[in-house]
């Protein structure tokens, strides 16, 4: 099994990058005994100004064949953290790869959103994509702690 985050834009060194690295490192440590692999990030960038469609093509190329595709979108479902953890465990148990997709400033092209196995929202407000990376990384770490039965998630 592999877990990837495919995202538009390059995350420069700074607080967001440090937080993403920290949460993914914690995920890797907690996930190891749960059969969850370290998460890899793939960044794509369309330098020719082709907009959402060009970004969709680049993102599609980075999505592994057969992976469960989870699109981050403010119009999507709003699962609880335990529900999110359960879905990840179900895919793990079915030996399915998982690929999270985060769009750029214009969002994700509708053609790409149509192929999602799941569209999830971090609330109905729109967040900058770099913060979405941080929040997704935190929720993935939180999911691992829920599956491990550790006290990080107290709700
Ligand atoms: C700045 S937002 C783009 C907003 C764009 N206007 C749209 O209609 O999608 C960049 C990316 O961050 C992610 N994103 C932003 N807010 C989100 C939210 N509330 N929940 C989940 N993902 C979000 C989405 O992947 C989005 O494509």
UniProtKB/TrEMBL annotation:
EC number of this enzyme: 2.1.1.177
Record GO cellular component, one term: cytoplasm
Q: Which subcellular locations apply to this protein? A: Cytoplasm
Q: Which UniProt keywords apply?
A: Cytoplasm, Methyltransferase, rRNA processing, S-adenosyl-L-methionine, Transferase
Q: Does the keyword Transferase apply?
A: yes
Query: Which reactions does this protein catalyse?
Result: pseudouridine(1915) in 23S rRNA + S-adenosyl-L-methionine = N(3)-methylpseudouridine(1915) in 23S rRNA + S-adenosyl-L-homocysteine + H(+)
**CDD domains (UniProt xref):** RlmH-like
- What's a Pfam family this protein contains? SPOUT_MTase
Q: Which GO terms describe its molecular function?
A: rRNA (pseudouridine-N3-)-methyltransferase activity
Q: Per UniProt, where does S-adenosyl-L-methionine bind?
A: 103, 122-127
Known Gene3D superfamilies for this protein? 3.40.1280.10
- Where does the protein principally reside? cytoplasm
Identify the InterPro entries for this entry.
Answer: Alpha/beta_knot_MTases (IPR029028), RlmH-like (IPR003742), tRNA_m1G_MTases_N (IPR029026)
Assembly information from the UniProt record: Homodimer.
The record ties this protein, via PANTHER family, to: METHYLTRANSFERASE, RIBOSOMAL RNA LARGE SUBUNIT METHYLTRANSFERASE H
NCBIfam families to which the protein is assigned, alphabetical: PRK00103.2-2 (NF000988), PRK00103.2-3 (NF000989)
Cited function: Specifically methylates the pseudouridine at position 1915 (m3Psi1915) in 23S rRNA.
Alphabetized HAMAP family for the sequence: 23SrRNA_methyltr_H
Question: What family does this chain come from, according to its entry?
Answer: Belongs to the RNA methyltransferase RlmH family.
Q: What is this protein called?
A: Ribosomal RNA large subunit methyltransferase H
Q: Which organism is it from?
A: Paracoccus homiensis
């Amino acid at each position: 099994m592999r877990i990837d985050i495919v995202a538009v834009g390059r995350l420069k060194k700074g607080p967001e990058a440090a937080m993403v690295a920290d949460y993914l490192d914690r995920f890797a440590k907690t996930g190891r005994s749960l059969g969850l692999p370290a998460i890899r990030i793939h960044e794509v960038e369309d330098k020719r100004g082709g907009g959402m469609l060009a970004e969709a093509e680049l993102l599609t190329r980075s999505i592994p064949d057969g992976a469960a595709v989870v699109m981050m979108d403010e119009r999507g479902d709003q699962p609880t953290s335990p529900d999110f953890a359960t879905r990840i465990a179900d895919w793990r148990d079915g030996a399915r790869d998982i690929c999270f997709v985060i769009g750029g400033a214009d969002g994700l092209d509708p053609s790409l959103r149509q192929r999602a196995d799941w569209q999830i929202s971090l609330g109905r407000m729109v967040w900058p994509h770099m913060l979405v990376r941080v929040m997704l990384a935190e929720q993935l770490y939180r999911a691992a702690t829920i599956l491990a039965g550790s006290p990080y998630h107290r709700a």
